[in-house]
């Protein structure tokens, strides 16, 4: 049994009087310890797919099965607080909170974390190249690459088995982008995370263990 299985996924948006089908009986599965890329043209449904597997969108038919249980039966709230964390292209930090405060807020919401260990927050941040001074500055005063490292530290510290990233390198230069990819590889290989990254960039996907592509014509996810 895979960590996360998607079976018979059907998804469509209302589009004026009609509907626009994004997935038609799509299937995919994901396991711990692997770094996945999801490729697809703009508008093919990558963000839609991530929203579904991150428990942020319940307007799907079919099954999203985490550890053998359909996530709606787990409860999407609970699933989000225990199973999955999200990394975005625009980092999504609270601008006027420090890096440490941003992480503390997320740890507070996560059901995986008991108590706030500031030493642990600092040690993860330091490992990702954020020193104590930067960690205590407002998030908005950090560079894009630094903000994305803070967002990654936040995912690590909420201790979710699945990390989902939507174009995480989209706003970064190639050096910072490559560094983010190296961090994701480590999260999969050394921390046994299931890392699922959406990207436009075929080149970035080469570093992944497994590539899925969204087939816009068939409305399926293919390998
Ligand atoms: N709320 C909505 N109502 C109607 N159509 C929508 C809605 N949200 C998204 N869509 C459409 O669904 C399609 C898939 O959108 P999605 O954001 O998943 O694409 P994407 O693959 O992430 O694209 P990009 O690479 O540009 O981010 C697009 O054509 C989009 O216009
Ligand atoms: Mg998108």
Descriptive overview:
- This protein has nine helices and ten strands.
- It is an alpha/beta fold.
- The protein has one domain: P-loop containing nucleotide triphosphate hydrolases (Rossmann fold), CATH 3.40.50.
- The strands form two sheets. Strands 6-7-8-3-9-10 form a six-stranded mixed β-sheet, with helices on both faces. Strands 2-1-4-5 form a four-stranded antiparallel β-sheet.
- The radius of gyration is 17 Å and the shape is globular.
- The relative contact order is 0.21.
- The model has no long low-confidence stretch (mean pLDDT 96).
- The structure holds adenosine-5'-triphosphate (ATP) and magnesium ion (MG).
- The site of adenosine-5'-triphosphate (ATP) has 12 residues, from strand 1, strand 2 and helix 1.
- The site of magnesium ion (MG) has 3 residues, from helix 1.
Keywords:
binds adenosine-5'-triphosphate, 223 residues, alpha/beta, single chain, six-stranded mixed β-sheet, binds magnesium ion, four-stranded antiparallel β-sheet, 9 helices, globular, Rossmann fold
